[in-house]
Write a structure and sequence with these properties.
The chain is mainly α. The chain has helices at 2-6, 10-60, 66-86, 89-97, 103-121, 142-166, 172-188, 195-228, 233-259, 269-295, 302-345, 356-384, 390-410, 416-446, 452-457, 463-494, and strands at 125-127, 351-353. Strands 1-2 form a two-stranded antiparallel sheet. Helix 4 (89-97) packs parallel to helix 12 (356-384), helix 6 packs antiparallel against helix 16 and helix 9 (233-259) packs parallel to helix 11 (302-345). The chain is globular and about 75 Å long.
Length: 495
């Protein structure tokens, strides 16, 4: 037996060796497939950027400055991709986190409505310099203006890319403003910056999330006190859910009028509010019988109430995407349109028309960026800050619309990103306070106060995400400004 074991059949050894080699090959193939999956999204994004450059090349047709426009189109496409990857998550995150819709459905809805908002109500005229931060005539000449716009656009896109990779939802508007400031200071000095406007933008870092959080918490308090913690939950829902849907319909009608319809025709705040009142009352009257029919046969428990908010939440997410596409597409195509105009006309204009192909680059880029890279931040916003259900997510969406209306009335600049994320934190902190309050009341009744370690365990908001997001918000303008200044110096040196 021993001799047999020492002299095995050579064919057996060959088969064993072959099996080992096949296993190694299999592992290599698995690794290749894994790496390939990670490269698909960047590859498609690069293809879109190249396509935008090719479109610009075809349309310019060998005109002077063609290479500049091609480079600007590619950078504008890159910026639009990053807006879709980072900013759109704020609209869809709560709806996905509450399980009112799947991630795939949310991506499709957002892509469609973002594109519609950008193309239908994105506007045909934008300011060449974001928020009037820099006076175009303060720059030495049109060439320096083109380099400043290109530097600002690329710096904002790079910062958004980094923030998305780090998992931090930041403001695209603040990113492009920071880029304009950085290039403007290097090109024309500190005196060219409107520091009053910059101060208002800095104030919005605090105003936006606080307003969003307070309003979201207020509506969650109403839902808890009037619907959830009452004896007959179904009867209370039949009364209050149509009212809340009416408020949502009115708020979004006003919101869309201010953020979308203003690009189609002139509309005042009072006119927008009047539109909202009419739509709100109509929404309340229409949903009264619908909610009554939907609630028939429901069990008298909290879980039953969630289904009543799911459809309104999906609609609100779609409307937010439409308004976002109409408003924030200018962050990608505004500087690009300014560059195209300056190259073609040779002068610097305070306002420029947006060619359709430029708007299409922005609209499609936002949708493509959302589909390829959006899931990461959608999951963070929807699941990782605090636990959301349809009722809590509904309060976040409603607060976004109302905060924009209030801010417009007060003349305050706000960020849609800061509002939405602030609303999520507001809902989470209210839940903590409410849970603590109920636990304390129950402890007093039973004579067993809640110990400190148990209170810490019950924290419902992840503090680490709050610190990450706050830090990203604070450094957005300085970071994009510094990047833009460096890029401007490089472009100026090589031309």
């Amino acid at each position: 037996m021993t001799v047999a074991n020492q002299n095995p059949d050579p064919r057996v050894n060959q088969w064993k060796t072959l099996d080992k080699d096949l296993k190694r090959i299999g592992r290599v193939e698995e690794g290749a497939h894994f790496v390939a999956r990670g490269l698909v999204a960047p590859g498609l994004a690069l293809a879109f950027i190249v396509l935008a450059g090719l479109v610009a090349a075809l349309l310019m047709g060998g005109q002077p400055g063609q290479l500049v426009v091609i480079a600007a189109a590619a950078i504008g496409a890159y910026m639009a991709l990053n807006i879709g990857a980072n900013d759109v998550a704020n609209n869809m995150g709560p709806a996905v986190g509450s399980k009112a819709m799947t991630l795939l459905f949310a991506l499709i809805i957002a892509a469609v409505f973002e594109s519609l908002g950008a193309l239908v109500a994105g506007g045909d005229v934008v300011k060449t310099v974001a928020k009037g931060i820099i006076e175009p005539t303060a720059l030495p000449d049109s060439t320096h203006f083109v380099w400043a716009m290109m530097s600002a656009l690329l710096a904002a896109a790079l910062w958004l890319n980094l923030a998305t990779w780090l998992g931090a939802p930041v403001s695209t508007t603040h990113s492009i403003v920071g880029g304009v400031v950085g290039a403007g200071i290097v090109a024309a000095g500190f005196g060219a910056v409107d520091w009053t406007s910059m101060g208002m933008i800095a104030a919005s870092w605090v105003i936006s999330p606080v307003m969003g959080g307070v309003i979201a918490a207020f509506f969650l308090a109403i839902i808890k006190s009037k619907v959830i913690y009452v004896d007959d939950k179904i009867a209370a829902a039949r009364k209050w859910v149509p009212i809340l849907i009416g408020i949502m319909a009115g708020a979004f009608a006003t919101y869309l009028a201010l953020k979308g319809l203003k690009h189609l025709f002139k509309i005042t705040l009072l006119q927008a509010i009047a539109i909202g009142l009419v739509v709100g009352v109509g929404g309340w009257l229409i949903t009264l019988p619908m909610i009554r029919r939907q609630s028939e046969g429901m069990e008298n428990r909290k879980k039953s109430l969630k289904s009543l908010f799911s459809v309104p939440l999906v609609v609100s997410a779609a409307l937010l995407s439409f308004a976002h596409g109409a408003n924030d597409v200018a962050n990608a195509v505004g500087p690009l349109a300014a560059i195209v105009h300056t190259v073609e006309q040779g002068d610097i204009a305070a306002q420029v028309g947006i060619p359709f192909w430029v708007m299409a680059v922005g609209a499609l880029g936002i949708s493509v960026g959302l589909l390829l890279f959006g899931p990461k931040l959608i999951k963070l916003v929807g699941n990782e800050i605090t636990k959301l259900n349809p009722m809590r997510a509904y309060c976040v969406a409603l607060s976004a619309a109302i905060t924009v209306i209030v801010a417009s009335w007060l003349g305050l600049p706000v960020s849609s990103t800061h509002i939405a994320v602030g609303g999520i934190f507001g809902v989470g902190f209210y839940r903590e306070w409410h849970a603590e309050k109920r636990a304390r009341e129950l402890g007093i009744k039973k004579g067993k106060p809640v110990p400190p370690e148990e209170r810490k365990r019950r924290l419902l908001v992840r503090r680490s995400h709050m610190l990450t997001v706050a830090a990203a918000w604070v450094v957005t303008v300085p970071a994009s400004a510094a990047l833009s200044a460096v890029l401007y110096l490089i472009l100026n040196a090589i031309t």
